[in-house]
Amino acid sequence: MEDYLKQREQLITEDRAQRVDSARMQSLTHIEQKAESIVRAIRAAEAVSVWGVNGTTIFDYLPDDKSPNVFPGMAFLTARNIAVHTQLFQILSRMPKGALLHAHLDATVKARVLLKLALEQPAMHVRAANRITPNNLRATLPEFKALPQDQWTSLASLTEDSYVPNEYVPLHKARQNFDQSLGGPEAFDDWVVSALEINPSEAYGTHNTTAKIWAKFTSTFMVSGNLCHFLPLWRKYVREFLLSSVDDGISYVEPRINFWYKYMTGADGQENVTHRECLVAFDEVLNEVKAELKRQGREDEFVGAKIIYTTLRMDQGDNVEWYLEDCLALKKEFPHLIAGFDLVGHEDSLKPLTDYIEPLTKFKARQKELGLDIPLLLHAGETLGDGSAADMNLYDAILLGTKRIGHGYSLVKHPKLMEICKEKTIALEVCPISNEVLRLTTSMPMHPLPIMINHGLPVALSSDDPSAWGSTGLTYDFYQVLVSTEVSGLITMGELARDSIKYSCLEDAEKERALALYEKQWLKFTEWVVHEYSAASADGTRKMPN
Amino acid sequence: MEDYLKQREQLITEDRAQRVDSARMQSLTHIEQKAESIVRAIRAAEAVSVWGVNGTTIFDYLPDDKSPNVFPGMAFLTARNIAVHTQLFQILSRMPKGALLHAHLDATVKARVLLKLALEQPAMHVRAANRITPNNLRATLPEFKALPQDQWTSLASLTEDSYVPNEYVPLHKARQNFDQSLGGPEAFDDWVVSALEINPSEAYGTHNTTAKIWAKFTSTFMVSGNLCHFLPLWRKYVREFLLSSVDDGISYVEPRINFWYKYMTGADGQENVTHRECLVAFDEVLNEVKAELKRQGREDEFVGAKIIYTTLRMDQGDNVEWYLEDCLALKKEFPHLIAGFDLVGHEDSLKPLTDYIEPLTKFKARQKELGLDIPLLLHAGETLGDGSAADMNLYDAILLGTKRIGHGYSLVKHPKLMEICKEKTIALEVCPISNEVLRLTTSMPMHPLPIMINHGLPVALSSDDPSAWGSTGLTYDFYQVLVSTEVSGLITMGELARDSIKYSCLEDAEKERALALYEKQWLKFTEWVVHEYSAASADGTRKMPN
């Protein structure tokens, strides 16, 4: 028996040797050991007290079971309001998260906050395809537009009898006069929010397939785009994104910005703001935020931000080459701001990467000519397909030399590509909640992340489009991951956070600084965990799993 | 570009080199090539016409989408009645399936057939914990029992006012007099069937977690056990299992028989039939079936059957050693019938394999003493856990020298164990539909099978407990697998079928014969596909995926 247990221990060690935490687990500080135990004990206790684990045994069959179908790592849109009240969530919200490497800017600020920002803009108007009534409220989408001052209207409401379909109403008026029979201004807010977020009845009911939920998801961008892409609002949006990220413990961000729209709307209501002007604005906001944090003595919490230039995987009048040249020009002028290039959108239905081999190859040649370096950071394998075009995108992303892979959800089906990703340290930007809401998985325990981690694939946890799932920051993603495993613990989460910095597009010196700052934050955080939760978990502490 | 495509081709080839079909795909006969193309064309056409692929684009958002959430490989209990009407299903139902290596005998015969067999037995009675009324029908389970003749009752109904709770009513009477207000005899049948099967509203609604659905699942065994474990009925049950398997194209079966109950009920209604007598009966039925098939000129369709001796992973008065000794004694007397040993039940809640290391080690020593060879065929990793006890069972199954792994669902999380399984050819008995109904995955595209296949893990597709999901045989499992991939095709399915024979517990000579017979069946089958479907798919044929 002793022999057997020794053999067993060794087999487990070999099996887990490639994990991101395998080295560190051998050399934990006393504080780290304590923090790890505390978090494991809290997780185990909350698995029972919050998520009902062991609440049903196999002999408890009741034909009309009315107890909720809850479990750790369950469907996020249903779990969210339970999760936020847990100790584990409170702890993770304080954890330093490192870098956010995969997030689409237009879906990073909470819907209600975006609406608040929009209400501050007198130019912002809203219209609907019909007068809003209780019967059509759910089926009608708001359409926003910032108008030039000479087109501002004096209409008062989307709900009164006299409303002419598709006429713009000033946003604050439309809200203020939203009919009381519909619920008044608060119902207006809910209506807008429901157009910007995916709700559980859609994801888990009416739109419960990847294709259908993507239709809803795309519609949220159509609604939000017309709010965000108004420069005065956009500046505040970027600011809000940066500050809320820092508040969530994120020290560096690489948002993907969609430059498909060639112009943004300016303060004068004209669609004439160039991509260059957007970058100038972004840089200004970024510097303001840095200055502000410095004034607050928080400069160590934020290293900065760089932009991933993206356009859509679709045909347009101009082909992708216009965007590639645009990206080159921007990189030349703002070398510190442009992190890389990506093609985005629903892989299952839009154009495959094979359609872009020539322009992207040329793009690399042009960089050489111009002495620039713009890594590709391509979405690939965000799909359930096995050999489908979206799954095959992984071959092309890797052959095209992508620096990281956006999602790479289906990568675990590809042994050779896994080998290459490990050898070349091509990190996967894994977005757990996004994958679940967009129906690639129905819960975290079914997500391939543990496969990736155990096989030693480089991973950076990311949020993708948090506003669409009613969240912001990275705490939620870390939470869903941490509750769905008994192998990984707090130390693992810390290693994933460090890796997100390591796999970022920061320059070497910046990266070194970011990693050094991370260690300071980590020490402070683990000390806080031990100080705050030692007593509480003293009785809950249990043997660590093997 | 040409260079790129050459590189791409090579990368794909390397990535897929470990697949079960990689060698064969290089040397297809003309007939196989044609059959493969036909099946791929039909699959592609039915993906659209049956499963609505491409029916929604990302721009088709409708807030109140009423279209069904269908897609290829979707939840089986909902898909079943759609699938059976497809051409692909018709084709697969004719495909030779090789061996069935993972099926629990008590859940292999359709519920309605079992009920029919039970109605033929005058000794069979049924009772309920209360008089059945419309209000409690759904919440009450039928309890069956074969009674000794002196205890047969003359009660007439479970539904009449005078029914005293827990009094036994002769089965045929209970059915015949089931109150018309409840729906009469047909409603009785539905009531029994719903206690023997998992229905979609349970799996996908009220019991939509692994823990809860296992509670329902276990209850089906409690209901069926009292029907099956009556020797006169059991003989007919075994016969039905064997014949329906052969009809489904299965040429060899290794059912797991649960010997947890030490005695079966005999024709006299006494619980005194020993395990030895069960095996004698099994052998007799097996020989009858063989003789019958021979009379029909079908002897080449069936190689035979061996039993996997199983008991439950639970404590009982006697410990597991009683069963191990019992298994040894049976193997000694029926060496041709006992294929191996397994411990079964819900891994997430029952005892882990670590509790059985000593007895199982001793079991091996005892085999040596007695000159016997009883391979372990252990369930392990039938779980969503990541480092949970059920997931850790994989380490023990392998260290204990298991010949195959029952399920191994979580094996893909274990790089070292994957290596060992490939090296030692430890096959995974993968049960796609079972995994989905029991909520390890919510659809086939989310199932890890493509990961297993692409990594070259040895796999045998199995049905587990088909009667619980209203199916029999292996056609359904092959169907769900085949519609959920664009890499695998008919040839892959054939290779999986051949492998099931290869990984069986047949003796070498038997195995050789079975494989030779398979090739005859395969040739006939592929010729039939080409003959039957060439014209139909002529216009649907499309380029094979890479």
From TrEMBL, chains A, B:
GO terms for cellular component: extracellular space. Residues 210-513 form the Adenosine deaminase domain. GO terms for molecular function: adenosine deaminase activity; metal ion binding. Its EC number is 3.5.4.4. GO terms for biological process: adenosine catabolic process; inosine biosynthetic process; purine ribonucleoside monophosphate biosynthetic process. Its main location: secreted. InterPro entries: A/AMP_deam_AS (IPR006650), A_deaminase_dom (IPR001365), ADGF (IPR006331), Ado/ade_deaminase (IPR006330), Metal_Hydrolase (IPR032466). Its cofactor is Zn(2+). It is found in: Secreted. It holds the Pfam family A_deaminase. Keywords: Hydrolase, Metal-binding, Secreted, Signal, Zinc. It comes from the Eukaryota. It catalyses: adenosine + H2O + H(+) = inosine + NH4(+). It is an enzyme of class 3 (hydrolase). PANTHER family: ADENOSINE DEAMINASE, ADENOSINE DEAMINASE 2. Belongs to the metallo-dependent hydrolases superfamily. Adenosine and AMP deaminases family. ADGF subfamily. This is Adenosine deaminase. It comes from Fibroporia radiculosa. The lineage of its organism: Eukaryota, Fungi, Dikarya, Basidiomycota, Agaricomycotina.
